Amino acid sequence: MKSSLSLLALALWPVAAWSPALAQEITIPTYAGPARAPLAPRSVVAFDLAAIDSLQALGVALDGVPAIRPPAYLAPAFAGVPTMGTLFEPDFESLAVLGPDLIVAGGRSQPQVPALSRIAPTLDMTISGDVMGQSRERLRAYGQIFGLQARAESLLSEFDARLATAREMVDGHGDALIVLTNGGTVSAYGGDSRFGWLHGALNLPEAAPGITAENHGEAVSFEYIAEVNPDWLLVIDRAAAIGQEGEAAAVTLDNPLVGGTTAGQRGQIVYLDSAALYLAGGGLQAMSRIVDQIAGAFAAAQD
Description:
Distance between the termini: 59 Å
Mean pLDDT: 91
Number of helices: 15
Order of helices and strands: HEEEHHHEHEHHEEHEHEHHHHEHH
Strand content: 15-25%
Structural class: alpha/beta
Low-confidence stretches: 1-22
Shape: globular
Radius of gyration: 21 Å
């Protein structure tokens, strides 16, 4: 019923509720191509965790966020901020009352971009495909919108330094297989997948180069992992990422087949910060956390 009421309210809300002509604008790159955005918007709502991640890194405060349990490091961006519905179902009445100058959507909220655009200028900042390149592009775009270009470039320089350190730690120390557990099931991800930027950015060889590039990964068995025999196993626990109860990744992978791999024998199974990578992937802080985590794991193995 609430969804029906939201759609009714949206239908009745004037299409011209916002007027771009009343404010200065800037053209920035978005997932949908070049788009106009208000310059220095005073009221901003974001429905994408990667966007919230990068906006928080820039020091941009938000006036509306989705109702979701964010990764712990993003908690300050949500503290005391009104919720405006969920990633999948925005609360159009609350948005209309707030009348934000800008809405940032993307990823899981991407299908709502046309409807949100009837309330306020809405940017589709989805990150898909070239995660590294688009993440940088998004951060620079936010820097332009809020007059924080110098801050954005400083953050990117810091990230590049992290990458350089991680590459040094990774270089010559084996290949890796990225897997995602969801309860008792396991999926593997290759270099062209949503998590594949870890291979490309870190020059980390793939243990199984033939994995099908799919958004949801390729379902695999424990026998498959044993056959691939990765030097490193990088693990994403989906249930933990979304706060869902169920079998933890460490329990799922605690079996002789996984334990018998090189990764298992050498203690080179790395449980990544799943909430950061799965929920806010493409956000600069999320990527920094994962890069640091992998660098730390490889460095520890060399001690």
